[in-house]
């Protein structure tokens, strides 16, 4: 059809109305002819129709964004408008994206292959201890437990993270690594190069931003290599449907001053979820490590801060052990997640071999812990089945949006046995508490710890007991 002959779109309804009106009038003239209109009435009718046409055309221009008044002009402008809309949609599809779903702005390319996100955390603690027979242990105070800032990102299969921490009046590097995603035996896997948290136990492999208690259990904090929780090296992880396995070799963490040899640690961990559904998840796990300890290395055995981080005087002391050459450790994990409830159990033992002034030795020490919790409302336990670790709790009704947040009740028992070491002590602790999750990124933690120690060295030798109350405000993103 030739567009120049098309009636203006806005005129069509009017013309149709006139035709229908004329047909109706014509039908009426057969039976009863109407009275003829005067010249003035005809003039008014034409003016009204002209005004209606103008109004309809104006509305049409506003809708279509065009300037023409004819149907031909509108038809001509329609393809141009479609082209402009398509160009705009294409431009928007290629634009970078920003999301706040993880508590900080995450910037990504349109196809998601390039990602950058800042991350950090703030722990503000308060603590008070009473009841100890050693008066120096009955102290109260506050501390900034941790201020951590860093960033993480991705370039396709290459990921990275850099993070520093201010704690204990010192600054230390924590996560500093790169990962390469690949496939191993047809399964998804990643290779980490750098300084990364150990893969060892549920608590030991999880960030303290996610663990239910203010500090990891004694298995996570004590059954570890001389190098500690981090170490610079290589870690290969492979992931199945309901399991994962890791193998790593690493030296000391990157805060080593470089004035002595690194210790060398080989470690492996596996976890399996024999049951994994919305109602119930069961976790089974095991880990092993072996280390060759550098001559003169310090911190081969660590004391247990059984009453929380602030009070450095309430500890289970391992005593002094010199000349350690190597150690081997292993542990087991069991956990269950049942709707709003959860329970975990961990056990670990470590064997130390070496020689001191009295001769060669072969000594063991061990620790174990059981814990449980229950969400009253507003959230469920957060468990990552991919790596067998604690995840971030998702709050259904955040306080920051006018809601009540989520409340969790929790309890834990821990036991440490250094008795086989030359001057090592023993002890245990009961912890009861609650967590109030304000939103996905912040919580307030309350804990009451009833502890007992039997030390043969250090502060508070002999039997001692007391009660410590700890609180924390946490923000982590």
From TrEMBL:
InterPro entries reported for this sequence: Porin_dom_sf, Porin_O/P
SUPFAM superfamilies linked to this entry: Porins
Pfam families per UniProt: Porin_O_P
Claim: Plastid is one of the keywords in the record: no
Signal peptide per UniProt: 1-27
UniProtKB keywords: Signal
Protein name from the UniProt record: OprO/OprP family phosphate-selective porin
Lineage start: Bacteria, Pseudomonadati, Pseudomonadota, Gammaproteobacteria, Lysobacterales
């Amino acid at each position: 059809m030739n567009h120049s002959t098309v009636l203006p779109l806005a005129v069509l309804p009017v013309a149709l109305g006139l035709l229908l009106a004329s047909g109706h009038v014509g039908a009426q003239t057969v039976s009863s002819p109407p009275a003829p209109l005067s010249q003035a009435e005809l003039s008014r009718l034409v003016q009204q129709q002209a005004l209606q046409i103008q109004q309809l055309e104006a509305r049409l221009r506003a809708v279509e964004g065009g300037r023409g008044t004819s149907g031909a002009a509108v038809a001509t402008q329609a393809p141009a408008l479609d082209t402009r809309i398509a160009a705009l949609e294409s431009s928007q599809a290629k634009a970078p994206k920003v999301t706040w779903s993880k508590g900080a702005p995450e910037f990504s390319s349109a196809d998601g292959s390039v990602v950058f996100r800042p991350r950090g955390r703030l722990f503000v603690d308060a603590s008070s201890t009473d009841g100890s027979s050693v008066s120096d242990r009955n102290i109260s105070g506050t501390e900034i437990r941790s201020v951590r800032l860093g960033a993480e990102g991705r370039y396709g299969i290459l990921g990275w993270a850099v993070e520093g921490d201010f704690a204990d009046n010192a600054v230390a590097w924590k996560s500093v690594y790169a990962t390469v995603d690949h496939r191993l035996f047809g399964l998804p896997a990643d290779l980490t190069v750098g300084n990364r948290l150990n893969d060892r136990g549920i608590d030991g492999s999880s960030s303290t931003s996610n663990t239910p208690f203010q500090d990891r259990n004694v298995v996570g904090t004590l059954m570890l290599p001389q190098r500690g929780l981090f170490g610079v090296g290589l870690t290969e992880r492979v992931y199945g449907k309901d399991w994962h396995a890791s193998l790593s070799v690493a030296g000391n963490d990157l805060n080593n001053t470089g004035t002595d040899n690194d210790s060398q640690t080989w470690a492996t961990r596996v976890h399996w979820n024999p049951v994994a559904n919305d109602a119930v998840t069961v976790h089974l796990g095991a880990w092993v490590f072996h280390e060759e300890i550098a001559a003169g290395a310090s911190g081969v055995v660590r004391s247990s801060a059984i009453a929380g981080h602030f009070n450095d005087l309430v500890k289970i002391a391992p005593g002094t052990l010199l000349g350690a050459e190597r150690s081997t450790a292993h542990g087991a994990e069991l956990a269950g997640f049942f709707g709003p409830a959860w329970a975990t159990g961990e056990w670990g033992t470590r064997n130390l071999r070496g020689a001191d002034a009295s001769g060669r030795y072969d000594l063991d020490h061990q620790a174990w812990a059981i814990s449980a919790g229950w969400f009253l409302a507003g959230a469920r336990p957060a468990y990552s089945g991919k790596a067998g670790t604690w995840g971030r709790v998702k709050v259904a009704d955040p306080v920051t949006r006018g809601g009540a947040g989520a409340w969790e009740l929790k309890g834990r028992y821990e036991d440490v046995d250094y008795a086989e070491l030359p001057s090592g002590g023993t002890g245990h602790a009961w912890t009861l508490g609650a967590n109030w999750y304000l939103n996905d990124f912040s919580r307030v933690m309350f804990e009451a710890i009833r502890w007992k120690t039997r030390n043969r060295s250090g502060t508070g030798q002999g039997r001692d007991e007391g009660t410590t109350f700890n609180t924390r405000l946490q923000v982590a993103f």
